Amino acid sequence: MGSVVTVSHITASSSAVVRASGLTKRYGDFTAVDGIDFEVTPGESFGFLGPNGAGKSTTMSMIGGVSTRSGGELSVMGLDPDKEGPRVRAHLGVVPQQDNLDEEIKVRDNLYVYGRYFGLSRSYLKPKMEELLDFAQLTDKAGERVDALSGGMKRRLTIARSLINEPKILLLDEPTTGLDPQARHILWDRLFRLKEQGTTLLVTTHFMDEAEQLCDRLIVVDAGRIMAEGSPSQLIRDYSTREVLEVRFGSAQNRAAAQTLEGLGDRIEILADRVLVYAHDGEAALEQVIARGLNPVSSLVRRSSLEDVFLRLTGRSLVD
Asked: Which sequence ranges form a coiled-coil region, renumbered to this chain (predicted)?
């Protein structure tokens, strides 16, 4: 793939680069972030998994020093973002939910102008821009205007731009929302390469597959509170079964069918369009469904995911 991006490493690997204790954010009577605690270690890919409105983006804004906290403690690289915002931001790369590129100038110029905001020299920026364009697979698009790029290319350019100052921590707010599956996988590959080089990643997402792909550890957030914390595999192991049987009987029949399935597997969840049977062996569970005289319209056996963890913890899906 050519050259790789050079990133700075943190020598004090035993200390957290982001630490929150009782972190709270209120807007009038509304509490967006409700007293959460977490720590992020150097080189870790740390995730905030939850639905829209859970408080994920608000937490990222406080880490980036864009939004002041209402209560609790927060430190980034040992600094208080409320008091030392500029120093904190010097260590950060930020990829916002919505791309905020300058659409009317060329791809290469977006990197150059952003680098100049940081006071970086032309002699530094010239090779750095080429390095980042190669990393983002945009070398052949360098002379084109941004508005000619696809959504996936714009997202990769936004990430490349965020790396211009060699940040120690990269904040990614819903990095693949709106992208097609191929563009998502390309972006995941770019982020995985950064992680391999030791960049600390903080990722908010409501996509369970993204959290499983990118995150070493994550917190499940709902209504501003932490519901659970751990690695994706640990959370699935603690809060779900190895497999899930999905059966559909028709919207009007699902609830009645679920009553007949009572006692099957570890537990049963009734959703609007299907019934979920949580069991160690999904195929054996399906045989039991048929043995009880039920004939589902469709059936699917799959492995448990973080979606199932969230459903177990909150009683609803990540995307309602």
From this structure: none
Q: pLDDT grade, residue 320 (50/70/90)? A: low
For residue 7, pLDDT beyond 70: no
Q: What is the predicted pLDDT for the residue at 180?
A: 87
Closest CA to 32 of 225, 309, 281: 225
* Residue 48 near residue 219, CB atoms below 8 Å: yes
61 and 196 belong to one structural domain: yes
φ/ψ bin of 217: left (φ > 0), alpha (ψ from -120 to 50), beta (otherwise)? beta
Percent of the chain predicted with pLDDT > 70: 95
CA distance 40 to 45: 8
192: enclosing H helix or E strand: helix 181-196
Closest CA to 163 of 102, 103, 115, 108: 115
Assess whether 262 and 181 both reside in one domain: no
Instruction: Let me know if residue 8 belongs to a domain.
Output: no
Q: What is the pLDDT averaged over residues 86-103? A: 90
Assess contact for 27 and 53: CB atoms under 8 A. Answer: no
Which of 200, 230, 260 marks a domain boundary?
230
- Show the tokens assigned to 118: 């940081």
Model's pTM, two decimal places? 0.86
The CA-atom distances, in angstroms, between 169 and each of 200, 232, 254, 296 are 5, 21, 47, 49
Contact criterion met (CB below 8 Å) for 35 and 22? yes
Q: Are 73 and 22 contacting, i.e. CB atoms less than 8 angstroms apart?
A: yes
With 0-12 / 13-18 / 19 or more C-beta atoms within 10 angstroms meaning exposed / middle / buried, residue 157 is buried
Range of the domain at 301: 240-314
Sign of the dihedral through C-alpha 95, 96, 99, 104: negative
Q: Check whether residue 184 and residue 298 sit in a common domain.
A: no
Return the CATH number at 101: 3.40.50.300
What's the domain count of the chain? Answer: 2
Beta strands in 64-173 (DSSP E): 71-76, 92-95, 169-173
